[in-house]
Specification:
The complex is a heterotrimer.
Chain A lengths: L30 H12 L17 H15 L4 H12 L14 H35 L5 H15 L1
Chain B lengths: L1 H29 L2 H5 L1 H24 L6 H6 L6 H6 L5 H22 L5 H25 L23 H30 L4 H32 L10 H26 L3 H24 L12 H25 L14 H31 L9 H21 L10 H7 L1 H17 L5 H24 L7 H10 L2 H25 L2 E7 L4 E4 L2 E12 L4 E11 L2 E13 L4 E5 L1 E4 L3 E10 L6 E9 L1 H19 L24
Helix pairs in contact in B: 1-3, 1-7, 3-6, 6-7, 6-8, 7-8, 7-12, 8-9, 8-11, 9-10, 9-20, 10-11, 10-13, 11-12, 13-14, 14-17, 16-17, 17-19, 19-20
Chain C lengths: L2 H8 L1 H4 L7 H23 L18 E2 L9 E2 L8 E6 L4 H16 L4 E6 L3 H11 L5 E5 L3 H5 L7 E5 L5 E6 L4 H17 L7
Parallel strand pairs in C: 3-4, 4-5
Antiparallel strand pairs in C: 1-2, 3-6, 6-7
The chains are: A mainly alpha, B alpha+beta, C alpha/beta.
Chain lengths: ~160, ~650, ~200
């Protein structure tokens, strides 16, 4: 199946992502290796598609890379070595899981940071609340004896 | 003639919008009644004009008028009528026309149903709506005119992308836009409130039905999109964390947070700044989505044709609308006076916690979506942020929220007691543990997240039912009393119950589909059998055929389980000759426990063998059912009579404390 | 009377000296948005689909390919040493390659720089016909039938053009079709500098 590869802001149609991805002739005999191949493929980006892994895409390059991944696995490479093989040719862009490095610190730590800020804000919010209550309580006139007796009576009724 | 009429109507709508955006606003400021009153007729007029424009474009498509460029690019005489109509919005220009159609629809709806709003406030709301509309009319008329002619007219069109010639996808944009664009009302309400310098319980009550309506449609639109991807793309995937998918998920998260936050404003007269900000954010996310799809800044399967001029224009629009509203927020926000107070452990506290969770989740998704752009813009390396990142970040954020969702509704307003609430959930907790254990027992080789997912789904679902049971005094009073109480449950409460329960169902579905999917890819000769997840698929051969504008290869499968026949399945592969594009129509048999899913591929070899992909996707149907239940909850809640109450006036507070109310 | 306390709690601002809300917090959203807007503005000038090459500054990968049908000279990594050259990745099924072809012919005729062609995933007959009918600007050709050599070069589409220096190091990569202006502005200066540095270690 020919694949046409579009460039330079040609009209981008929805590329038919039909999931005709892995075909039977690609599947390795060894199921363990095949499983590793599928997992690795799921983490590698198809460079000529829009946001798919090579496992999902039926583009020509995706197929070539799937075959390459399997070849390297059969040759005895570890998962990391296979991935590095591809990254050394195409860069980190090909990793769907962004690497954890200086440039991506904000990305990976961001959500955690936001949670912390959120929790701190909530704590501050409730502390302000309590301060406001305390301030208001300070302006409240104390209850007279009659009022105190009525209060006790009503509270007792409430409990029963 | 139709094209010129449509074009002209749009230009007129622009002028009406300019009037609507200015005079009523000045009128409200100066308390000049005639100008305030202008907002209603202009809103109706705008809607009518855009409707004429939209009708013209539809007419052009339906009659296959190939003198119009938009029709040429997206239609074909052989295309079925349904898709001639759907083709109107299946492209950049037409979809923008749909955008303003829905924008003006909501504006007219506020004019029509907004009798409970004070006139000055309503006119401000409609003025803001009109301002947004002006931006979009200018965008359409200047850069994306659907009525452009092409001379000489070609004999036939380029057909609509075959992937879009599908029922689910035909409905997906209108539904999604009703949601997206619907949040413009909440946005306008927020801006109007900021202009007036006042956010109060009344405002929170007014904003709720509109936000609910938009939320309902957005839920449905997202679900439709996922459902479409599931049955069309051929391998059962339903969410890819694609930038534009994210762009319609973030408004949903913000909108959900807004719904919950508005309740606190209404009850306690506090969290105003947050709620107003959420209303601004929800719609801003919608606009962001518009930018991402049409500017070419990010790669996405959803991208329309890109054009730098369009990108610049939308960015300008974004800066004016979002920047302007956030500037207004920065200026007027501090003046919003906070009212009541509440304890950390209380219903309001739980809602605040929800606020936090949803907002951080939306921010995390935004961060992941835009990060490649940021890094590239500052000269760093090009990286991808794909599903692994989003799953790693989003799921852990959701888990505490889901746990809290069970507890929140059981807490009292203002001052809640955690221990009694947790005690009430003892049984629910037990059931969840049992469910988790049972899942683990059944799928010991599967991912542990699957067990967690099911346990959480049961936790949420059972607790929601338990809360309802408590409310209607099930098993505590007689059946008559229980039924009476059931009838008296307020609609808004039904909304909450169904909303949460629907989510529980959806979580179960998502967990099943993501954790225990069984896949089998092979070449099959007629008569061969493959076992997939306990089901035996026998390939009965393939046949060629012809459809209205495509050629078909149909593969037939017989599925048996334990020797007994379950179903016959017909899978198709279609080729659309005009664009030379193939599509898959998978055969799907839906059961409670999961879907049987069969795909026929290319022929292999000479003896009638074909590549086949066979799947068992567990629990998938629960996702769609869950979404429907959530939408139902929203629909019931919208119709709550209490939303139609006008400006409330404070009643003298009662002497004794009232029992907790929804 | 009993409601006194809770009523006071409720009517917050009416009674209290409430601390001034920190204005700073309200400014955060617009500040964040400004950052995003700037990023978008810059983003409009970028192309998210253009990947910078990982091989810049590295020696060409080891390879040895037979020539395209009907040509005599194949291509290997050794052949790329000794002079500055262009390696152009092309295919007969590629529209953009058609667009840049006249420029390549012109460059070849003027002898500006030797151009070698890496034929990517093409049928032998198709590639042969292309060169026979349209003209052959290539000093050497390499028929990469299965695209494996191209993967080693980090190729992910056609056309792409590499500038290789005298020592066989990849110095520059252009993605997409070449045009006269792109060549003059981007590629020619690189070639000129490399030729000027002949004899010295480049970079």
């Amino acid at each position: 199946m020919k694949s046409r590869i579009l460039f330079l802001a040609l009209v981008i149609f929805l590329i038919p992502a039909q999931g005709f991805a892995v075909s039977p002739d690609e599947v390795l005999d060894d199921p363990v290796l095949e499983e590793r191949a599928r997992e690795i493929s799921k983490g590698l980006r198809c460079l000529v598609c829009q946001n798919q892994s090579i496992d999902d895409s039926d583009a020509g390059l995706a197929r070539d890379l799937r075959l390459l991944v399997r070849e390297r696995l059969v040759a005895g490479d570890s998962d990391e070595e296979v991935v590095n093989y591809i990254v050394s040719r195409y860069g980190e862009f090909v990793l769907l899981r962004p690497p954890f490095k200086l440039g991506t610190l904000v990305l990976w730590l961001g959500p955690l940071f936001l949670v912390l800020i959120g929790l701190v804000s909530i704590v501050i919010f409730f502390r302000r609340n309590r301060e406001a209550v305390d301030r208001k309580k300070a302006t409240v006139l104390p209850l007279s004896d009659m009022e105190q007796r009525r209060l006790r009576k009503i509270l007792k009724e409430r409990v029963t | 003639m139709s094209a010129e009429l449509g074009h002209f109507a749009l230009i007129l709508a622009l002028f009406v919008a300019i009037v609507q955006a200015t005079l009523p606003l000045i009128g409200a400021q100066r308390n000049y009644a005639p100008w305030i009153a202008l907002s209603k007729p202009t809103a109706y007029c705008q809607f009518a004009l855009v409707a004429i424009s939209f009708a013209s474009l539809t007419h052009l498509h339906v009659t296959s008028d190939f003198s119009v460029l938009n029709v040429v690019q997206n239609s074909h005489t052989a295309k079925p009528m349904l898709y001639k109509i759907a083709g109107v919005w299946g492209n950049h220009e037409g979809s923008l026309l749909l955008w303003v159609q829905i924008l003006s629809l909501f504006g007219a709806a506020v004019a029509l149903f907004g009798a409970n709003l004070p006139p000055a406030f309503r006119s401000r709301v409609l003025a803001v709506q009109a301002m947004i509309a002006v931006g979009f009319y200018l965008f359409i008329l200047i850069t994306s005119n659907p009525f452009e002619r092409i001379m000489p007219p070609p004999l036939n069109g380029r057909d609509l992308n075959p992937l879009l010639q599908d029922m689910g996808l035909a409905l997906h944009p209108p539904m999604l836009y009703l949601g997206y664009v619907g949040f413009s009302i909440a946005f306008s309400f927020a801006i109007a409130a900021l202009i007036e310098g006042r956010v109060d319980a009344a405002w929170a009550r007014w904003v709720r039905p509109w936000t609910l309506a938009a939320w309902m449609f957005l839920t449905a639109g997202n679900a439709l999109g996922s459902w479409w991807a599931y049955y069309e793309l051929g391998w059962g995937g339903w969410w890819f964390w694609d930038p534009v998918e994210n762009a319609s998920f973030m408004p949903w998260l913000a909108g959900t947070a807004l719904l919950h936050s508005a309740v606190v404003v209404e009850k306690r007269d506090t969290l105003k700044g947050w709620t107003v900000l959420l209303a601004i954010i929800a719609f801003s996310m919608s606009l962001l989505g518009t930018f991402l799809v049409r500017s070419g800044v990010l790669t996405s399967v959803h991208a329309f044709a890109t054009d730098p001029a369009r990108g610049v224009f939308i960015l300008a629009l974004l800066i004016i609308v979002i920047g302007g509203s956030l500037a207004l927020f920065a200026w007027r926000g501090p003046q919003l006076k906070s009212g009541g107070l509440f304890q950390p452990i209380s219903r309001e506290g739980a809602l605040l916690f929800n606020n936090l969770g949803m907002t951080v989740a939306a921010a995390a998704v935004l961060l992941g979506t835009l990060y490649p752009l940021f890094l590239d813009a500052i000269g760093g390396s090009k990286i991808s942020v794909g599903a692994p990142f989003f799953n790693a970040v989003f799921i852990p954020l959701m888990i505490p929220l889901i746990i809290a969702m069970a507890i929140g509704p059981l807490l009292n307003w203002k001052r809640g007691d955690l221990i009694p609430a947790l005690t009430r959930l003892k049984l629910v907790f037990l059931i969840s543990i049992v469910a988790g254990a049972a899942t683990w027992a059944m799928e010991m080789d599967g991912p542990f997240m699957g067990v967690i997912g099911i346990a959480l789904a049961v936790w949420l679902g059972a607790s929601t039912l338990a809360e309802l049971a408590g409310r209607i005094h099930l098993f505590r009073a007689g059946p008559a009393e229980t039924l009476r109480r059931l009838g008296r449950v307020p609609r808004a409460t039904w909304g909450m119950t169904l909303g949460h329960f629907g989510l529980a169902l959806a979580i179960a579905g998502m967990t099943g589909a993501a954790s225990w999917k069984v896949e089998s890819i092979q070449a099959m000769k007629p008569g061969e059998m493959v076992n997939v997840g306990g089901y035996e698929f026998t390939f009965d051969g393939a046949q060629q055929g012809k459809g209205p504008n495509y050629d078909i290869v149909t593969g037939k499968f017989t599925v048996r389980r334990d020797g007994e026949k379950v179903v016959d399945m017909l899978a198709e592969k279609r080729i659309y000759p005009v664009r030379n594009m193939p599509t898959t129509e998978a055969a799907i048999h839906t059961m409670i426990s999961g879907d049987l899913y069969a795909v026929i591929g290319d022929p292999e070899g000479a003896d009638g063998a074909y590549v086949t992909r066979l799947y068992f996707n567990p629990l998938v149907v629960w996702m769609w059912i869950g979404a429907i239940v959530m939408v139902l909850g929203g629909a019931i809640s919208v119709t709550d009579v209490r939303h139609r109450i006008g400006v409330p006036h404070r009643r003298r507070p009662a002497t004794a404390a009232k029992p907790a109310e929804a | 009377m009993v409601g006194h306390i809770s009523a006071i709690e409720d009517q917050g601002a009416a009674y209290g000296n409430e601390p001034k809300k920190s204005r700073l917090v309200f400014i955060i959203p617009i500040v964040l948005f400004s950052v995003i807007a700037v990023a978008f503005a810059v983003g409009l000038t970028l192309d998210p689909r253009k990947l910078p090459s990982m091989l810049i500054g590295k020696t060409v990968p080891d390879f040895d390919l037979p020539p395209v049908e009907g040509r005599k000279l194949g291509m290997s990594d050794e052949d790329l040493k000794g002079q500055v050259s262009l390696v152009n990745v092309w295919a007969s099924w590629c529209k953009e390659c058609r667009a840049e072809h006249p420029l390549l012919m012109d460059l070849a005729e003027r002898g500006v720089v030797p151009i070698h062609g890496l034929n990517y995933k093409d049928k032998p007959v198709d590639a042969q016909n292309w060169l026979d009918n349209l003209g052959d600007p290539y000093a050497r050709t390499g028929a990469d039938r299965d695209g494996r050599v191209a993967i080693d070069w980090g190729v992910y589409g056609v056309p792409e053009t590499f500038v290789v220096d005298q020592n066989g190091k990849i110095v520059y990569k252009h993605i997409g079709a070449l045009s006269a202006s792109i060549f003059d502005e981007k590629i020619l200066p690189v070639i000129t500098e490399l030729n000027g540095n002949a004899g010295r270690v480049s970079q």
